[in-house]
Specification:
Protein name: DUF6286 domain-containing protein
CATH class of the largest domain: Alpha Beta
CATH architecture of the largest domain: 2-Layer Sandwich
CATH topology of the largest domain: Alpha-Beta Plaits
Helix content: 40-55%
Oligomer: single chain
Strand order of the largest sheet: 1-3-2
Distance between the termini: 21 Å
Shape: elongated
Strand content: 15-25%
Number of helices: 6
Number of strands: 6
Pfam family, one: DUF6286
Keywords: Membrane, Transmembrane, Transmembrane helix
Largest sheet: 3 strands, antiparallel
Structural class: alpha+beta
Number of domains: 2
């Protein structure tokens, strides 16, 4: 849980985006899928190297035999397309392909939250931990709150406060209102859901 104080966050990033809208601002701070792309590239490189070794060694008359072609070919010749094993292999390959397509199509979650500005060509990004600190400060300033903390994950914010008051329901609404005012003031490009928890005296 992010508490107030601590080390300073990075300065907000300013990214010029022509034709700004909410979706454009959100995409501006989404990272690419670097790690899956590297894994897929290495897998393709390994397959290419293996194929090259097999082909060149066969042309030189000394097959490397790294891939058991005879066993694979024999299994393919004796296995029908409607065989359970063939269907399972096809389903596994299709699932791998679908996962790769989804990884390529769906961008990763960024570390910055895109905020709207008065300038339609300007997008502002703030770290999620900085946004959590803002919500922590807003909740901590509510009368009756003894301690506050917040955490922002994705487009969801959790605010937790401690109080010595017995009537926690009223305090929960006041804390929620304070946090919602801060979120509205910052104007995130994507709606942020909010959950407020109040811990009363033990």
């Amino acid at each position: 849980m992010s508490e107030g104080g601590g080390r300073s966050e990075r300065t907000p990033l300013f990214v010029p985006v022509r034709g700004f809208d909410g979706a454009g601002a959100e995409r501006a701070f989404r990272p690419g899928r670097g790690l899956p792309a590297v894994v897929a590239a290495l897998a393709l490189l390994a397959i290419g190297v293996l194929t090259a070794v097999e082909v060149i060694s066969a042309l030189l008359g000394r097959p490397a035999g790294l891939v058991p072609y005879e066993q694979v070919a024999g299994w393919a010749r004796t296995t029908a397309w409607n065989d359970d094993r063939a269907l399972a292999a096809a389903a596994a390959l299709a699932l791998i392909g679908l996962v790769l397509v989804l990884i390529a199509a769906v961008p990763g979650r960024g570390r910055l939250v895109a905020l709207r500005t008065a300038d339609p060509d300007l997008v502002v990004g703030v770290p999620r931990r900085a946004l959590a600190r803002v919500l922590t400060g807003a909740a901590g300033r509510v009368d009756g709150v003894r301690a506050a903390g917040a955490r922002v994950r994705g487009w969801h914010a959790d605010v937790s406060v401690r109080t010595d008051l017995r009537d926690t329901a009223l305090l929960r609404e006041r804390v929620r209102a304070a946090a919602e005012r801060e979120i509205a003031r910052l104007a995130p490009a994507h709606p942020i859901s909010l959950r407020v928890r109040v811990h009363g005296p033990r």
